[in-house]
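In full, the data.
>
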Amino acid sequence: MQSASDRHAYPAHWEADVVLRDGGTARIRPITVDDAERLVSFYEQVSDESKYYRFFAPYPRLSAKDVHRFTHHDFVDRVGLAATVGGEFIATVRYDRIGTDGMPASAPADEAEVAFLVQDAHQGRGVASALLEHIGAVARERDIRRFAAEVLPANNKMIKVFTDAGYTQKRSFEDGVVRLEFDLEPTDRSLAVQYAREQRAEARSVQRLLVPGSVAVIGVGRTPGGVGRSVLGNISDAGFTGRLYALNRAFPEDLKELDGVPAHRSMHDIEEQVDLAVVAVPAAYVPDVVAECGEHGVQGLVVLSAGYAESGPDGRERQRELVRQARAYGMRIIGPNAFGVINTSADVRLNASLAPEMPRPGRIGLFAQSGAIGIALLSRLHRRGGGVTGVTGVSTFVSSGNRADVSGNDVLQYWYDDPDTDVALMYLESIGNPRKFNRLARRTAAAKPLVVVQGARHGGAAPQGHAVRATRLPHATVSALLRQAGVIRVDTITELVDAGLLLARQPLPTGPRVAILGNSESLGLLTYDACLSEGLRPLPPLDLTTGASAGDFHEALSHALADETCDAVVVTAIPAIGDASTGDAELAQALRSAAEQVPGKPVLVVHVELGGLAEALSAAASTAPQADRKVPGAQIRPHPFRPLDFQAGNPPEQPDTAQGPTTLIPAYPAAERAVRALAEAVNYAQWRRDAADPGKVPEYEDIDEKGAAQLIGGLLARGQGLTLGTDETCDLLGKYGIDVHRALHAPTPDAAADAARTLGYPVALKATAPHLRHRADLGGVRLDLADEEQLRRAYAELTELFGRPEELRPVVQSMAPRGVDTVVRAVIDPAAGAVLSFGLAGAASQLLGDMAHRLIPVTDREATSIVRSIRTAPLLFGWRGSTPVDTPALEELLLRVSRLVDDHPEVVAVTLEPVVVATHGLSVLGASVRLAPPPARDDLGPRTLPTY
C-alpha cells in the first residue's frame, strides 16, 4: 500500500504506463517508504560499474541511511520515481531541489540535481529517456525550471541520455566531472525528439504483435469447433513460418500433439520463448492466463475472449484489471473481444484471427474496431476485381475489439514506416485521443494515403467498451479537422475500399482535369456529370462507339495520357456482343499496355456488368487465381462474359510488392463510385502539395502579449471561469489589434438618443436579447438611422413589436460600411484542442452547416484556404457582379484571433459576430470572450499510454 509523503499526499497522477524502445511496457510511479525491500533488491542486481558511475566510487551496497533517504520523499523538493516491470524496480531517478550554492533548498529555488540508475539487463531499452521525461514533468509541476547533473566522463550512455533529450543546455568540466545544466521548458527540438521516440517505441510494440517468431493459442478445444481450435487451424493453414503451440489445461497429460501442433497444458511446459499468445478462454480464466504469459516472458496478447466492457460495468472493471495486469508484465494487448490479427508477409504468414481464409498479400493495411466490419472489408477486398483480386491485397490487418490498449494510433505508428504498406484503411467507431490521432494522421498522410470511415457518427456516444475523451465538437467539425490533417474521409466501407484500390497502385493525379473515353456515349455522359458533381474538371467525353476494338481503346488511352491538358483518365466500357467483339483479356491488355507506355497519370475503368474485364485487368500481372492453379482460400466462379478456363497469359508467381508490376488498373461497377474515388485522390494530392509548404504564423508588432496576459490573470483572479463584459472584451481584443465597434446600452429612448449623439449619426439600433441577437431576419435591427427622430421612431417600433426595453436589451451602435456579414469563432475543445471556425453570418449558413474549421495555430496559407473553403465563399469574391470584399483584412483577423487563443489557452472561447467585411477593411460589430483555466494538454507532457 502506498504511504503518504512527508509533506504531500501520494501523487497518484504521476503514475503512468510507458512503451519502451523495444516495444515492451513499464510502469513509472513515485517511490514511497513501502519500497525499501524493492530498492535493496534492485540495487543488488546492478553491476559494480553502474554503481560506480552513479556514486563516483565503489558502492557495493546501500546503507540503512541510504535506503531511508531514497524512499522518503516530500514529493516537492525531493522526488524519486521508479520504472517497474512485474512489480519490481528496473530503474530509478530522483531529483533534489538545490539553491544557488548547490545545497538543499526549498521554493522559490528553481533548480534541482537529478540522477539515474538503470539495471544493466534493462539498459538500452530507453528506460532512462522515459524517466527523464517524467521526472522533468514532475519538476515543472513543482516550479523547478532547471536540472543539473554531474556525470563521469566515461559514462557515455548517461551523457547521451541528457544531450539527446533536446533541451537547451550547457556543459562544463571541473574536478574530473562533467556538469550538465538544462532548462526543462519543452522546446520544438525536445518535442520532436519525444515524438520520434514515441513513434519508434509504439511501432515496435505493434511489430511484436504482428511479426512474432512463435505463437501460443490458449483455449484450444479437444474437439473440432470453438474459437480456440478455429484460430489454431487458421494459423496452421496460413502456413505460419514460426513455432506454433496449442494450450489447454484440460488436455490429457499424454497428449503431445493436436492437428500436428505441439500441445501443452500450461505455458510453463514450453521450454522455448513464446512471443505472442492468442487468448480464447472465458473471461473468468483470463487473469490466470495473463499471469502465466507474463511469467514466461510473452511479449504480447491477442485477447479474443468476450465478457468485458461491452457487457456492462462489471465487465468494464474486468477490462481495466486486464490492462493493468498485462502492462505490469510489459505486455501489450489487442482486444479484448477482438477478431484477431493478420500479416500476409511471406516471412510471417500469420492469420491469428477468426477469418477462415488468409487474405491475398498486398499493399493495403486494414484496421477495424468492429469484427463484423473487419469481415466485410476482408471480403470486399477478396472479392473485388480490377486491381484487387490477386493484385492489391492486404499487408496487415488488425481488429482491435474493445480497444482497451492497442488502438488505431499505435497501428498508425507501425504503418508509418512499414515498407509493406502503401495505403492505410481504417474503420473507426471512436477516436480515443483526437489530438494525438490528428498529429499522427498528418505525419502518416504526408508519406502514404490514409483513408478513414467513422461509424457511430450520429449515435451521440462511444460504442460499449471504448474509452473515449469527451468532445463538444459536432461530427462535421471533427471530419473537417481530419481532412485538414490529410485524412481521406469517406462515409461508407464501399467508398473506403473504392478509394483504397485506386490509391494502392495508381499514381496521384497532378490536378482535377479528367479525360473520359469509352464505347458508350451514355456512360461517358454519366461519368462527365459525376465529375462535375465532385468538383473535377472533365474534358468532353470521347465516344469510341460500341464497335471499338482493343486497338481503338489503346490508341485513345495513349493519346489521352499524352495530353498535357489531362491529369487522369476514366475509361468506360460496356459488354459487346458478337463474334467480332473485343474480349476481356484483349481489352485489358490494351489498356495496361497504353498505361505502361505513358506512366504518371491514374487510369480508372468503369464497367457495367462486365465481371470478366475486372478480373482480366489484374490477371496477367498478378497472383490472381487461374483455372490451372489454385490459391488456398480462393474460389473461381464462372460469369456471363468469361468462360471458366479463360486465361490472360501466363501470370508470374509473385505477390503484390513494391518490386512487382505497377500497371494495375482498378475497375468500378458504377461511374459515380469511380469518380468519387478519383476526387478523393485529387484532393489528397492537393493536400500533399500544400503540406510541403504549410506557410507560417505571422508576427504582428502591435500585439501586446504581455499586457493581455496581465489582463487575463487579473480577470481570472475573480473566479474559475467567466464571460467578459463588453468593456473587458474590447480591452482584451484590442491588445491583439482587434477593434470592436462599441455598442452603448439604451434602456430608454432618451438613453438611446444620448448614445447616438455620443457616437454620431447615422447609427443602428439593435435588440440584444438572446432570442433576437444576430437575428436580423426577425426584425430586431434598425439600420441607417440618420437623426434623433428616426431613432425614437425605430425604438418605439421595436418595443411595440417585441416587448419592453428590459426584455429587448436594446443597444445603439455607429453604422459600419456595408459589406458581407461573417462570423469568426474559436474554442478550446478538451479532446481536439483549439479550433478556429469561419463562415458567413445568417440563418442560411447555420442551416446548411456551412462553416470551415482549422486547428490553432493557423498559418497564413491556412487563413487563405479557410476563407475560400466554405460553399458561400463566392459572395466574398464578387458573385453576380458584386464588388469583391477585403479578404486580406479578413484573413488577418483570423490570424490575430488564432494568435490570441494560441498565446493564451485561458481564452477558451471567442465569438466575433457579425464581422462586416467591406470593400476596404472590416468592422467587428459584436464580440464575446470566455475565460477559464485551460484544460490539461497531455500532448505536451511525457509519453504515456492512455489510462483506461
About this structure: The first strand starts at residue 16 and ends at 19. Confidence is low (pLDDT under 50) at residues 1-5, 385-390, 620-655, 657-661. DSSP finds 27 helices and 39 strands in the chain.
